[in-house]
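[[Local backbone shapes]]
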Amino acid sequence: MASRVKSSGIGALAARAALAWVRSDPRSAELERTNFHGRTVSLAGGPALAAGATLGAAAGAAGASAAAAAVVAGAASGAVGFYDDVVGNRPEQKTAKGFKGHLGALREGRVTSGLVKIAGVGAASLAAAALLARDPLVRAHPARARGGVLRRSGDVLLGAGVIAGTANLLNLLDLRPGRAIKAATIIGAPLVAGRGGAMTAGTLGAGAALLPDDLGETVMLGDAGANALGALLGVALAARTGPAGRALALTVLAGLTAASEKVSFTKVIQDTPWLRELDALGRRPAS
């Protein structure tokens, strides 16, 4: 319990310190955007959450390999997400929407910021999964003890899919103030209990520290915050599951991603009373 409290506190303090530092930068006005309510908010919440959650998760990791996996996944996902937040706002970048749009732009000889983000999150997820494979606690799982090279390689690919898939899921949910952090809390709460829970506690501590600013619509997470938050939850999930658990998690994540192409998550939330109430809880009124 003490380790969870400690990592949560580190994540929270780091997130608040990072937010203050980003806001004090003379160029911080360049991060201002208009949200769905027409209010001016700052993207400063993204890098602040990425930094705080990464440090909190690394502080709570059980070993050096798991800590390195958290740093790679959180920092890299946050960095490429921030790049997309800033560069993707340019007029020539806005024409490419979705994965198909980014691939279409690539065929025309243009590398979009969204494609850089997709490739960066994928590479970071693969590197993080490979680092997790070296962690003694992860390797000790019974299903891995009898695995050969091919099975171990497949396990790393499953882990990378879980990390990237969770990063993408949180990014898909980050369409309203506080929604991504609330979703992360629901997903991460079970992971706080049991082995390796301090890593998740560090991640959620950073989110909790920035939730009032997110709900108050003074900051927004953007791709930087949502991707980093999701990737770190993915690392924690991959660290405590065997190949079968990773395959199940990846199947669920793939299903939700496919569903998002056909169904609006926001519409589902609005049409479901208890989800609508939870989503609006604590949020600044529209008026």
Notes: The mean pLDDT is 88. The radius of gyration is 18 Å. Residues 112 and 240 are 35 Å apart (CA to CA). Strands lie at 32-34, 40-42.
